[in-house]
Every structure is written in structure tokens, then in C-alpha cells.
Design brief:
Elements (H helix, E strand, L loop, with lengths): L6 E3 L2 E3 L6 E6 L2 E10 L3 H20 L2 H17 L1 H12 L3 H21 L7 E2 L6 E9 L2 E5 L7 H13 L2 E5 L5 H14 L6 E3 L4 H10 L5 E5 L2 H12 L4 E5 L4 E5 L5 H13 L9 E7 L3 H12 L20 H17 L2 E4 L18 E4 L6 H4 L6 E7 L2 H9 L6 E5 L3 H10 L4 E4 L26 H7 L1 E9 L13
Parallel strand pairs: 7-8, 7-10, 8-9, 10-11, 12-13, 12-17, 13-16, 15-16, 17-18
Antiparallel strand pairs: 1-2, 3-4, 5-6, 6-19, 14-15
Helix pairs in contact: 1-7, 2-4, 2-5, 2-6, 3-4, 3-6, 4-5, 9-10
The protein binds nicotinamide-adenine-dinucleotide.
Length: about 500
């Protein structure tokens, strides 16, 4: 019997009010049901928001260092349960154990960062322009945070948002992706065990257009932190904008790695393999374009195809496997359609290009590592996010052209350049249009204490990670204390 999961609303584990449910299956073996989850609706969201709203006054009164200590305990519990959660996550969404362990570790690191931040959350003291007057800023909590997350980082992304929200004193209504509800449920269990006030964290499972949209449009939700596709991000921004809600959007990418003619080719090869085929290409920061200098083009391509053709595909629970399945049937269809589009556009396949159905893999959503050459910058496979193990290779003749091609999409999340030339590296750091640039590293590999996010259609200017997340989940309050005992008028009495 598959395990039955529930929502967590107003301090109780409960079914959806409608009683409806949905199944979550293992993408590496569709016979295996990971769990049965409540298919919630607007009435469940209403109850969750009411609980979070009611809890806000009490939760914000807990001193921030104490809230931070609770996050530390959550981090300790994640450490204890790391292996169990990693295995559950692999069964739930397919990525290999090395990566699901890394996903949990990112949550642990984020918890410990929150522990420290509970004792910081610095304001500023600033001299007044008037005598006997004191000026300062503090950070205050905002209210109810609606948290909507994707499936590709089922622990890391919720922790990026929920640890800072709770540490800042906000209360939470959390809707995880319906492909990864089990990992999200474990996270909420851990928050409760660590000592978060139960009504301050509410979990509502279900679909995006129903549960997600009900959170976005609820008048008592003050801010939305969303990670997902640019298409959904635009819908959310428009809906939340009507009520002037604070909205943080972390969206799609079409990330590129440049390899210059002076690069260490072995290192660049390791980078592109990890960037393009790690997480089966399903990272927002995945390398989906390789921009190769013409002088090393043939040599590097031979090295790449040779190595990529040996990637071991299979169930991520097998420690020898290097690439798991894609998330579900419809995503595999999208990927395969893009391969057809690439061929119609005139690109040439040098590896893969089809589903992978060897042995046990016939029962899962597997796809071959796929590489296209003869790709032109304006082709759809070089412009649109595919979100699968498909790499488009573009040839360039110098650094200026490489940067122009890299910048020539509507996205701007992560970017990478391999070169030994310090001048080229600094020019790239300055001219690449992206929220993140790696020098001699792949496009993936964010550290939790650094700001994370993108420019152009990858987001709306906010950043997750590190101190920047705390800016989003709290408001700046400016305070003036006049101890002169008389009316002092700024801009007037001191002139
Ligand atoms: P998605 O946009 O389909 O869904 C993300 C979340 O939004 C899910 O919980 C979904 O149920 C919900 N949702 C869907 N429609 C909604 C609506 N109308 N109103 C409210 N909520 C709604 O994305 P996905 O397929 O889960 O994830 C893949 C996408 O996420 C890719 O585009 C990827 O680049 C992006 N992503 C971005 C980052 C980043 O930090 N920039 C990180 C990871 C993933």
C-alpha cells in the first residue's frame, strides 16, 4: 500500500476538504507509487492563510535569535535524516543519489546560515542632520509569505525561501510542486520537530492553477516567493501585481558555457558534462548551450561526444548510475519535440536524440544524452529552455562573438567561460548579461550564502541565497528619535 500523506493546516495534519487525492509515481519506475497526496482547493488555502495570518503576531514576537536557533535545530535534523531524505527524493524525482544528497546538504547549509542571521539582521545607524536626534533603520517582518516551488530541487529551494521567511518573523503557506510533495512533507515535519510554531507553517498540496493561484490572489497573503518557469512567473506577477504584493520570481534559463582556444580542455570537458547532463539537464542553471572557439572546435567536440556517449543511465538509487530519468511523461515529450524541432531547423545530431529504454529503463521516463551541432544562434533549440539532457553547440571565432552569442537570448541566469587569459576573463565578467558568471567552472554549483538569481526574463530583480533573501522577506523601517525637546524641522531649521 502506498503511503498516504496529508496537508498541514492550522497546526493539524488534514486531508483536502474535498477528500480528493492524487498519486505521485517514481519517474524511474512508473509502477512504484511514492505516495498518495491531498488534491487541495481554494477552501484549503483559505484555511491555511487564516492560520498563518492569526499566527503572525505571536511568531513575530519570538526574538529573532530564538527563531534562528529553531532553524539550527532544523538543520541538525536534516543532518540526521540526510540519507533517508536523499533516497526518498531520488524515488520521487529521479536525480542520482550524489545529487539528492547535495540537495539536502544545501538545506542544511541554509539552515545554519539562518541560525547566524537570526543574530544579525542588521539595520544601520546614520548621523542625523539635526542636533540631539538619532536615526536608524531596523528590519521588520512583513506578514504571510506564499511559497511556491518547482520539483527539480525539492529540498534546497523550499529551504532557500522558508528558512529566511521564518527567521525574519513571517509566517508561511507553502505549496510544493505536485511532482515532489513527499520531500516537502518531510521538510515540514522537520520544521515542526525543530520547534516552529505549528500555525506558522502551513503546507497545502495540489495543482498550480488551483492551489498556487489561490495563494497568489489571496488578499491576506502579503508576498509571493516563486521559483518555476518564466511563463508561470509572468502569470503570477500579473495576478499579484493587482494587489501590489511583493513578488520574488526565479525563472527559466538558457545558460551557456564558453570554451576559448586557450582553455584547459580537460577541465572544460568536466564542466560541460556536469553542467549539461547533471540532474538530467533539469536545472535552471543547466548548460544548454556550448559556445566553442573555432580553433578548438573539432578537438573538443570529439572529446565531448566520446565521454558523453559513455554516461551511465538508470535508476538514481544505483550508485554507479550517472544520469537518472526526466521528471515525467509530458516533460519527456517536450524534450523529444525539441529534438524534432532542432532537426527541422537544420541542426545535426551527433549524439542521442531519442528516449532510452534499455532493460529496466523501459519502465521510466529516460532520455539519451543528446548533442546538436551546426546550431545557429537564432534557432529555437538555441533560444528556448528545453529542460532536459540536450546540448546545443555553437561555433564562434573570437571572444566578442562568444559573448554576443551568449547574451543573445531572453534569459540571463548562469554563465561560464573557460579561459586562461585574465583579460578575457575580466571582459567576460563585465560584459556577460547574467546574474551568475563562473570563470573556469560550469554553469551549475551555487553556494547557499551567495546571492542567486538572474537578469532579463529569468526574474524580477530579487535574489535568493545569503543575505539577499533576508532583504526580500523583511521590510526596512526607518526610525527617528528626537531628544532635543523641541520641534526640529529637517531641511529648514539647520539652514
Ligand atoms: P512550473 O512553472 O511549471 O511550476 C512551478 C510551481 O508553480 C509548481 O509548484 C506549480 O504547481 C506552480 N504553478 C503552476 N502554475 C501555476 C499558476 N498558474 N499559479 C500559481 N502556481 C502555479 O515549473 P516546474 O516545471 O516545476 O520547474 C521547472 C522550471 O523552473 C524551469 O523553467 C526552471 O528553469 C525553473 N527553475 C528556476 C530556478 C531559478 O532559481 N531561477 C530554479 C529551479 C527551477
Amino acid at each position: 500500500m502506498a503511503k498516504k500523506y496529508q496537508n498541514f493546516i492550522n497546526g493539524q495534519w488534514v486531508d483536502a476538504r474535498s477528500g480528493e487525492t492524487f498519486e505521485n509515481r517514481n519517474p524511474a519506475n512508473w509502477d512504484e507509487i511514492v505516495g498518495i497526496f491531498p488534491k487541495s482547493g481554494k477552501e484549503d488555502v483559505d484555511a491555511a492563510v487564516a492560520a498563518a495570518r492569526k499566527a503572525f503576531d505571536k511568531w513575530k514576537a519570538v526574538p529573532a535569535p530564538q527563531r534562528g536557533e529553531i532553524m539550527k535545530r532544523a538543520g541538525d535534523l536534516l543532518v540526521e535524516r540526510k540519507e533517508e531524505i536523499a533516497r526518498l527524493m531520488t524515488r520521487e524525482m529521479g536525480k542520482i543519489l550524489v545529487e539528492t544528497r547535495g540537495d539536502v546538504q544545501e538545506g542544511i547549509d541554509t539552515a545554519y546560515y539562518a541560525f547566524g542571521e537570526g543574530r544579525r539582521m542588521f539595520g544601520r545607524t546614520v548621523p542625523s542632520e539635526l542636533p540631539n536626534k538619532f536615526n536608524m533603520t531596523t528590519r521588520i517582518p512583513i506578514g504571510v509569505a506564499g511559497i511556491i516551488t518547482p520539483w527539480n530541487f525539492p529540498m534546497a529551494i523550499p529551504t532557500w525561501k522558508i528558512f529566511p521567511a521564518l527567521t525574519c518573523g513571517d509566517t508561511v503557506v507553502f505549496k510544493p510542486a505536485s511532482d515532489t510533495p513527499a520531500t516537502a512533507t518531510v521538510f515540514v515535519e522537520i520544521l515542526l520537530e525543530a520547534g516552529v510554531m505549528p500555525e506558522a507553517i502551513n503546507l497545502v498540496h495540489g495543482g498550480g492553477s488551483t492551489v498556487g493561484m489561490a495563494i497568489v490572489t489571496h488578499p491576506d497573503v502579503n508576498m509571493i516567493s516563486f521559483t518555476g518557469s518564466s511563463a508561470v512567473g509572468k502569470v503570477i506577477n500579473a495576478a499579484a501585481g493587482k494587489d501590489l504584493k511583493r513578488v520574488s520570481l526565479e525563472l527559466g534559463g538558457k545558460n551557456a558555457q564558453i570554451v576559448m582556444d586557450d582553455a584547459n580542455l580537460e577541465l572544460a570537458l568536466e564542466g560541460v558534462l556536469w553542467g549539461a547532463f547533471g540532474t538530467t539537464g533539469q536545472r535552471c542553471t543547466a548548460t544548454s548551450r556550448l559556445i566553442l572557439h573555432e580553433k578548438v572546435y573539432d578537438k573538443f567536440l570529439d572529446m565531448l561526444v566520446e565521454r558523453a556517449s559513455k554516461i551511465k543511465i538508470g535508476n538514481g538509487l544505483d550508485e554507479s548510475v550517472e544520469m537518472g530519468p526526466v521528471i515525467n511523461e509530458s516533460q519527456r515529450e517536450i524534450i523529444h519535440n525539441y529534438v524534432k524541432i532542432g532537426l527541422e531547423e537544420g541542426a545535426t545530431l551527433v549524439l542521442g536524440g531519442d528516449v532510452y529504454e534499455e532493460g529496466e529503463c523501459a519502465k521510466g521516463w529516460f532520455y539519451q544524452p543528446t548533442i546538436f551541432v551546426d546550431v545557429k544562434p537564432n534557432m529555437r533549440i538555441a533560444q528556448e529552455e528545453i529542460f532536459g539532457p540536450v546540448l546545443s553547440v555553437l561555433k564562434v571565432s573570437d571572444l566578442d562573438e562568444a559573448i554576443k552569442v551568449l547574451n543573445g537570448t531572453k534569459y540571463g541566469l548562469s554563465s561560464s567561460i573557460y579561459t586562461q587569459d585574465v583579460n578575457a576573463a575580466f571582459k567576460a565578467m563585465r560584459d556577460i548579461e547574467a546574474g551568475i558568471t563562473y570563470i573556469n567552472g560550469p554553469t551549475i554549483g551555487a553556494e547557499c550564502h551567495m546571492p542567486f538569481g538572474g537578469v532579463k526574463e529569468t526574474g524580477n530583480g530579487h535574489r535568493e541565497g545569503g543575505w539577499s533573501a533576508y532583504d526580500f522577506f523583511s521590510e526596512v523601517k526607518t526610525i527617528y528619535v528626537d531628544y532635543s525637546g523641541r520641534l526640529q524641522r529637517a531641511q529648514i531649521d539647520n539652514r
